[in-house]
Structure formats: C-alpha cells, structure tokens
Fold this sequence. Notes:
By secondary structure, chain A is of the alpha/beta class. Chain A contains 5 helices and 5 strands, in the order βαβαβαβαβα. Chain A has a 5-stranded parallel β-sheet, with helices on both faces. In chain A, helix 1 links the parallel strand 1 (3-7) and strand 2 (27-31). In chain A, helix 2 packs parallel to helix 3. By secondary structure, chain B is mainly alpha-helical. Chain B contains 7 helices and 4 strands. Chain B has a two-stranded parallel sheet. Chain B starts with 13 loop residues before the first strand and ends with a strand.
Amino acid sequence: MTRILLVEDNEMNRDMLSRRLERKGYQVTLAVDGLSGVEMAAAHLPDLVLMDMSLPVLDGWEATRRLKAALPTRHIPVIALTAHAMAGDREKALEAGCDDYDTKPIELPRLLEKIEALLGGTGKDSP
Amino acid sequence: MTDPLPAGEGAGRHALPAVLLHDLRTPLGQIIGYAEMLAEQAEEAGGEGQAADLHKIGAAGYRILELIEEHFHALPTRADEPVPSPNGRGPGHALQRRLAPGRAPGAVRLADFIVANREPILAEWEAFARTCTPASGAMDIVALRDHANEMLTVIAADLRTPQGGSAQSEKGKGKAPDGESDAPTAAE
Lengths: 127, 188
C-alpha cells in the first residue's frame, strides 16, 4: 500500500484530505507542522509527501529544502499544496525542491493524477 | 479594498490582502472537499438523490471561488525579486516595498500578517544578517533562520494573546509578563 505523509496544519483540511485519500486506498500519516513533517518523513520514509506551504514552526518551503538536502529523504517526491495560487508560487515551490505543485481547493482527480505520475517511476503498486 | 484595476492584467478586479484571500479560500475548499467526499459516499451507498444535492453544494462552492477569482486579486506580498543590499534606510524598507509596494497592506491582524508573510520576512532578515552583521559570516545560516523563525512564532503567538494594560506596560520596558493579566485589552 502506498504511504503518503500529509503535512497540513489546518485540522479540517487534514481530516478531509486524509479521509479522501484513504478512501482511494492510500495509507496516510499526518504531521501538523513543517518540523514534525521533516522528522516524520525521516522516521517513516513515506512514498510521497503532500506539503502545505503555510505551516507553523517551519514553513513548507524550508521543510522541503531540508527533506531534499537529507540523503535518506531526498528521493521522496514532494507535492506542494497551497491556497495562495499567486503568480510565482509554483516556481517558488519547485525552487525549494518540490516535485510538483497543486492549489487548494484540492480537485482530487487532478491531485491523484499527480501522485500517480510521481509514483509511477518507483515501481510500487498503486495505491 | 482598493479601486478596481484599470486596463491590463487583472483589469476590473479589486485588491485584497493575500491573507484575506487565503482565509476566504480555505473554508471554501473545506466545503467543496467535504461535499465531494460525502457525495462519493452517498453514491456508493446508492443514495443518488442525496449525492446529487451534495454535488450542488460543491458546485456552489466552486462558483463562489470563481467569483472571488473574477473580482479580486491579492495585494503583492511575496518576495519575487532579489533582496537588495540595505541602503541605510533600515532593513524594513526593502521588506515593505516587497510586501505592499505603493499602498497599505490593509486591515490585517499583525499576528496573521506575520504568519502569512513568514518567508519574505525571513528572507529580508537573512539578507540583512548577511550584509550588515559581520559576525553572521561565521554562523550557520540555517540555524539563524530557524532561530528567527522561532522568534516570529513566539511573536505571533504573543500578539494573539490578550493582555492587560499593566502587562503591556511591563513588556514595553523589556520585562517578561508574569503570566497574570488584569482586564484584557486588544493586544494588536
């Protein structure tokens, strides 16, 4: 089963997205801020990380930079999630090391396509 | 809110602080997301009529989102240009230009503003540290950013905490609050 780490500080967003992903067959673990996201990624080595960008303690950009700078976690695909949808957000996320980018509100079919596209090269069964 | 933009990109749209747009989109996303999830569950359970109604809620949410996109745009609050060297006008000058060039950021709670603009504040702070504090050359810039990030978190939390007049007065003198406060007043 594909394991996804969802790093999201908003409780309702976390609950909603994790439940929708679990309904699609993914195993979802949760982190509520950027620092705990980095720590959980290192500890559990998920197949993919969904990273909100506006996070407390450590924001999503810096958390992604740390994931991509650390040897054990640099291979884990990271999809940035943001509600800002402002010009430059995508480039900024990619510069931080994110492998893809999606905007809130989440359109689940679109997000699932991006997840599967990134997991396609890992050889893992999906979900 | 500002007057609508003239001809060109975003013509006719009003400017709102980015944090307000973010705060509008977030609950909308939740309405849409939960409605879609419940609709899926209803469909699986054979409740076609209920699913159709839930899809209508989701569609209405998307329509509100479209209206927001059509009529509003965010005041620029992002660092999308190289950080210039401080020019003697103080480190806040370049930051202010990047956050809201030529206009006020609007009525936003300071704590929310700090949280929403954490990245550009840290970028400006880092640029200032690199260019204006010689000692920073020997320091780990990641550790410095972490420290500044933690300070911003503490400041935002402090701003959100109602405090009495005496506590604010003591803080103004550089003294830490003792945890007790008299009649709370707005901290921001």
